[in-house]
Design brief:
about 190 residues; mainly beta; eight-stranded antiparallel sheet; seven-stranded antiparallel sheet; about 5% helix
């Protein structure tokens, strides 16, 4: 049952709305929300919506997001967090209706970096996989739920070994964004 699988998860910044259609969890983000840090520009945004579980174990997490239309800069993806100044996110985003990208950001000591992969076509569903092996992580994405493409390998130590991991959604420049989340696998 879906609700049993989600009972150990909680929200960091609750979204505008959550409902449960036949499959998955429909999430509506609040407008002008994001996770981004820039010391250089004296900018800090930590009000996106993050649905997570905390763990100190190695894990393998697979989630799927589905949506009708990806609005400008709206994001739905996967995240890990140690604290508000140290986190990693990977998501699908678009700055126009024709260009879609897989983007990721590793934030350490209050500064976010940025890495992208261009996609050759628009999509309306995407799978993410994150594998933790001690303090090393591999983030991958799939456009069909079968073949995964490694996007990033990174090192992310946390002081006590605990991280929060799960799904996130945000709408940095647009109005509310609707997407359906499915947590397909969490193996610790």
């Amino acid at each position: 049952m879906l609700l049993d699988a989600l009972k150990d998860f909680e929200w960091y910044n609750e979204p505008e709305n959550v409902c449960f259609p036949e499959k998955g969890m429909m999430v509506t983000s609040k407008s002008q929300t994001d996770f981004w840090q820039s010391k250089q520009h004296n900018f800090s945004k930590d009000d996106g919506h993050f649905f997570y579980i905390e763990t100190a174990s190695d894990f393998r997490l697979i989630i799927k997001w589905s949506f009708n239309l990806l609005e400008k800069f709206s994001q739905c993806g996967l995240m890990i967090r140690a604290n508000p100044k140290e986190w990693f996110k990977i998501s699908l985003l678009s700055d126009n209706k024709e260009t879609y990208r897989i983007g990721s950001s590793l934030t350490k000591d209050g500064s976010s970096d940025w890495a992208i992969n261009e996609l050759t076509m628009p999509v309306n569903e995407i799978w993410y996989k994150l594998v933790r092996n001690q303090d090393e992580y591999i983030a991958s994405y799939s456009l069909d739920g079968v073949k995964y493409h490694q996007h990033r390998l990174f090192y992310f130590p946390s002081k006590d070994g605990k991280v929060k991991t799960g799904a996130y959604i945000a709408s940095p420049q647009t109005a509310k964004f609707n997407a359906c989340l499915e947590i397909l696998n969490l193996e610790a």
